[in-house]
Write a structure and sequence with these properties.
Helix 1 packs across helix 9 and helix 5 packs parallel to helix 6. About 5% of the residues have low confidence. Helix 2 links the parallel strand 2 and strand 3. The chain is of the alpha/beta class. The N and C termini lie far apart (about 40 Å). The protein has a 7-stranded parallel beta sheet, sandwiched between helices. The protein has 9 helices and 7 strands, in the order E-H-E-H-E-H-H-E-H-E-H-E-H-H-H-E.
Amino acid sequence: MTGLLAGRTVMVTGVLRPSSIATAVAREAAAQGACLVLSALPRAARVTQQVAAGAGLGEVTVLPLDLTDAEALSGLEAELRRLDLDRLDGVVHSVAQAAPGLLGDRLSPGGLAAGDRGAQCGPDAVDLASWQTDLERALTVSVASLPALVGAVSPLLGPGSAVLALTFESGRVVPGYGWMGPLKAALEASVRGLAVEYGNRGVRVNALSAGPLRTTAGGAVPGFDQLAEDWENRAPLGWDAGDPHGVARTAVALLSDWLPATTGQVLRADGGASLL
């Protein structure tokens, strides 16, 4: 095999649908010579296998794995070693989750602005409790799962290994994105912390901020079509929300050994829209 990732083993999370960004990254990584290992929630492992086959990835290993399950993470190294893997050259974190109530244009719970009467009693108290539970779950899945995953596979990471987390514009308020904005900001902060933590082992940790792409997750964001249209009009290089190719190729570059001195960074593949 030849290519930027020839001879490198890359683990990719989040390959769940043909339109997933993770699927595009996995496809491009395979085209560049990577040996792939995919992970999926246990109940979705068969779906991931089918998506991988449809993406032309062939007979790829799919590990049932819940990134929020401490017991499953504690056994991940052993599972990978049973596949005769003693090293991971790349890890792609493409996992996020937010309940519908956390999306939209307000951060306050239950659609109540700060100071609204009745926010702390009656049925609104139940809404607040539910909101807190949803936010804790979103934080665990979307943010804490990254350092948890890196910690679980750390014995297999070594000089030249690259960890990549997928993020989205967190430097400004994006209409409809709600709590995912602060959560992505926390994810990016985690990337910086992990880059320092693992730097002395020669492991690079970066984030890739993509422009809006038409995925199932993107479609859950209220007003996504308008967001994509505005992005396309604003981007100096132009932007096609239906084409993840540029994002996937940028991911491959970050997973390769062509950026050996880059770590703790958020690189953008967004057509330049974030400049304006």
